[in-house]
Amino acid sequence: MSNYTRYTFAERPDRAEEADALCPTVWPEFMLQDLVANSNWGYLTDEFAAFQFFLCDESDAIVAVGNSIPVTWDGSPETLPNRGWDAVFEQGVANLLKGIAPTVLSALQAVVVSGQQGKGLSAEVIRGMQEIAAQHGLGALIAPVRPSKKSDYPLTPMERYIRWARPDGLPFDPWLRVHHRMGAKTIKVAHRSMKIPGSLADWESWTGMRFPESGKYIVPGALNPVTMNLEKNLGVYIEPNVWMVHEISDRLTVDS
């Protein structure tokens, strides 16, 4: 039995802003500059409030937040988009505006508030998404997963990284391991899941680094090197994610 209480933004709109404000505190600054997110984030609170939630501990403090969006997917690995995170966000909003009924739920982010790690909250967030998918009759939870330790190995291709395993056979990466333990299947790499462009001044501000010449740079928190072009005054980060799929069982216990 969980010691945490889950509320959707629809159930507790009075705390939605508070929950939303906690999320940026756990990400590197450059991860907050995704153009798709910045253009569409308002839809989550305004139109998809039933799919956003937070977890409270016994003192009613918010300790974790989950964001997701309903989308359509035909179940074929080939149709999971290479643009991963950006693509599902855009599709969810487009489906809403066109009146297209979703078939699955896509995770967008799972945030555990600083100081609350190591308590099993990340699994609680995934479980919350699974249950919300079941409540809405959606057949799967799909997730463009950002492996939590990949930034320690930015020169290793994602295809190799996801094959790394511990002696017990479980994934090397902690976040991939949580999904795996909860029944998710690893499908494929989304090579261009997010695209974050910025001027050199932007990147210097976001990272505290300097970029004296054009080329690729390892930036703390990035899963891949960032490409800098001084002639164009442009730095571009392309983030790879990993498509994982949780089937939603008919026996899944959902909140009444």
What does this structure look like?
It is a single chain. This protein has 256 residues and is of the alpha+beta class. The chain folds into two domains: 5-194 and 239-247, Gcn5-related N-acetyltransferase (GNAT) (Aminopeptidase, 3-Layer(aba) Sandwich), CATH 3.40.630; 198-236, no CATH class. Helices cover 27% and strands 27% of the residues. It has seven helices and nine strands. It has helices at 16-22, 35-46, 84-98, 121-135, 158-161, 174-181, 200-207, and strands spanning 5-8, 53-56, 62-71, 104-112, 140-145, 185-198, 215-217, 226-229, 234-247. Strands 1, 2, 3, 4, 5, 6, 7, 8 and 9 form a nine-stranded mixed beta sheet that branches. Helix 2 (35-46) crosses helix 3 (84-98). The chain starts with a strand and ends in a 9-residue tail after the last strand. The model has no long low-confidence stretch (mean pLDDT 95).
Fill in the keyword field for this structure.
256 residues; alpha+beta; Aminopeptidase; 2 domains; nine-stranded mixed β-sheet; 27% helix; 27% strand; globular
